[in-house]
Amino acid sequence: MEVRLARKRGFCFGVEDAIELAQRTVREHEPGKVVALGPVIHNPQVVQDLEKAGLNQSGDLEQLAPGTTVLVRSHGAGPDTYARAAEKQLEIVDATCVLVKRAQTVVKQLHEEGYRVVMIGDANHPEVRGVIGYAPDVIVVDSEADLDRLLPRRERLGIVAQTTHAPEHVARMIGAIAARPFRELKVVNTLCLEVVRRQEAVAELCAEVDVMFVLGGLHSANTRELARICEQHGLPTYHLESWDQFRPEMVAGHKVAGVTAGASTPDYIINEFAEKLRALQPAEA
Ligand code: SF4
Questions:
Q1: Residues 84 and 138 in one domain
Q2: Exactly one of 30, 91, 127, 144 is catalytic; which is it?
Q3: Do residues 140 and 179 share a domain?
Q4: 40 CA to middle of ligand 1, Å?
């Protein structure tokens, strides 16, 4: 079958840096002494590889013994996590992506400048849960229905967004906020260009193919966004974690398949998938 790859896909620099730091930290410590606060990135295969190398995982600082090395993942953490780790005499190794760090700093600065901070994002995403810890009473909104929570209307709002959100969605939300009578809006662009470039590339690819495969962790926000863009283009779209989840009926009746991958998907998963898809004979496809 003919297979075309998105010109920008897979690992971003933030994920590469986080994996490298996790591997180095595990190598430099005794086995079992390094604990990540949740999955280092949203990709189960990469997380399994790190676990095999000796990285433990825990969602709860309270269970860790003094002297344990704690790895803060690429999505970052709130200031309470760092404070509690210091109280418990845990060593922190910080794999927070620099762009997530910037969003945290921006939220703090907006609050210090007197703005009520509004974050456009998914309230359950670990990045958002961490970022909103840098100012009191941050309001998280992700749909126009959420905007009714932005009261009183005479407030000065400082607006940021989850780094992995789509620019069109963020622009729509900002437009909807601007249509309401707030005294002042200050918008700081916290979107990640790595993600935006993958979204632009997949939109281009959608015009050339008749079925799309989006590879990446099912919990990965930026991978899910890529799948949403493909669906918006009217293509049959499959969000899979690896070739194991592929079924021949997914390509039945299709001639050209497109493949892209989220920012936490390693090249070996993308390459294996594309090779196996290319090897399918017409009768199988
Ligand atoms: S997608 Fe962007 S914000 Fe997220 S880890 Fe990668 S570079 Fe950082």
A1: no
A2: 127
A3: yes
A4: 12
Dihedrals φ, ψ of 150, to 5°? Answer: -85, 75
Whether 179 and 132 share a structural domain: yes
C-alpha distances in angstroms, 64 versus 77, 79, 247? 17, 18, 42
Ligand 1 center to residue 180 CA distance, Å? Answer: 31
Whole-structure pTM value: 0.89
| Reported confidence tier of residue 113, pLDDT bands at 50, 70, 90 | very high
Within 8 A by CB and 6+ apart from 213, the residues are 237, 238, 240, 246, 250, 257, 258, 259, 260, 273, 277
216: left (phi over 0), alpha (psi -120 to 50) or beta: left
Measure the CA dihedral 214/220/221/227, to 10°.
10
Q: What is the pLDDT of residues 73-98, one digit of tens each?
A: 999 999 999 999 999 999 999 999 99
Provide the CB-side half-sphere exposure for 196 (13 A, CA).
11
